[in-house]
Amino acid sequence: MDLPVLELNGLNKWFGPVHALKDIHFSLHSGEVCALLGDNGAGKSTLIKLIAGAEHIDHGELRISGNQVPASRYSVQQARRLGIETVYQSGSLGEQQSVWRNLFVGRHLRNRFGFIDHREERRRAARLLKTLDFRGVGANIEAPVSLLSGGERQGLAIGRAMLFDARVVILDEPTTALSVGEVEKVLSFVEQLREQGRACLLITHNMNDAYRVADRFVVMDRGKIVAQYRKSAMTRSSLQQALLDAVGQGAL
């Protein structure tokens, strides 16, 4: 098998006396969607913040495409340079800004004179929305984000990761509080990530969403990875039962 695009070896994190992450070993391959499951407080959010560079790694090894990344210099900016993009539940979008401006905020394209190239940004934004099959208000690159539906906002945030050629896309509860139709849109965006050969780490409490798009399921509890399952070996009901059994054994 090819080298993992993301690999964690012996990852640990403390917050004062609290041992938040305990000896995490995890890998993710290109073209794979992995669902990270667990109750509130299991350590999922802390783990993705470490991968995204938003929290400092206290101990352990992080590798991107086989290359070790010095933990002391790892940050959000470094993670992005290495191809790791995180889409949080809020989408981190500017409500009153246009669709195309949201795509490039903080990472503008510049012309040969060093000025922001608005024309090229608009062109690339229009091409991306066509790829994402945005329709109606969402297809208008000049529309303010406040007019977009919840699913379109998540799609825009995912599209931003595509635009900057992310190799790993982390999605934090992307379908929370969305209607059935909007959930379907977001899950189709996740499937596009896989089709494009990108790796995706999906954090969700919704077992149906996880089973629909994930190739693998990783279960966390109290800062540890306590179980892993491949979709090819599980039905939806057997996965649900496996998680219930883990709860019964005190793993969750």
Q: Could you explain how this protein is built, in words?
A:
This protein has a domain at 6-91 and 168-248: P-loop containing nucleotide triphosphate hydrolases (Rossmann fold). The chain is 34% helix and 24% strand. It has helices at 44-52, 76-81, 99-104, 118-131, 150-163, 180-195, 207-213, 236-248, and strands at 6-15, 18-28, 33-37, 59-64, 67-68, 84-87, 168-172, 199-203, 216-221, 224-230. It has a six-stranded mixed β-sheet with strand order 6-7-8-3-9-10, sandwiched between helices. It has a four-stranded antiparallel β-sheet with strand order 2-1-4-5, with helices on one face. Helix 5 packs parallel to helix 6 (180-195). It is globular. The mean pLDDT is 89. Keywords: ATP-binding, Nucleotide-binding. This is D-xylose transport ATP-binding protein XylG. It comes from Photobacterium marinum.
Spell out the key features of this protein.
252 residues, Rossmann fold, 6-stranded mixed β-sheet, 4-stranded antiparallel β-sheet, 8 helices, 24% strand
Question: What strand order characterises the main sheet?
Answer: 6-7-8-3-9-10
Uncertain residue segments: none
SSE arrangement, N to C: EEEHEEHEHHHEHEHEEH
Q: What is the tally of beta strands?
A: 10
* Range of strand content: 15-25%
Outline:
This protein is an alpha/beta fold.
Write the layout of secondary structure elements.
Layout: E1 6-15, E2 18-28, E3 33-37, H1 44-52, E4 59-64, E5 67-68, H2 76-81, E6 84-87, H3 99-104, H4 118-131, H5 150-163, E7 168-172, H6 180-195, E8 199-203, H7 207-213, E9 216-221, E10 224-230, H8 236-248
Parallel strand pairs: 3-8, 3-9, 6-7, 7-8
Antiparallel strand pairs: 1-2, 1-4, 4-5, 9-10
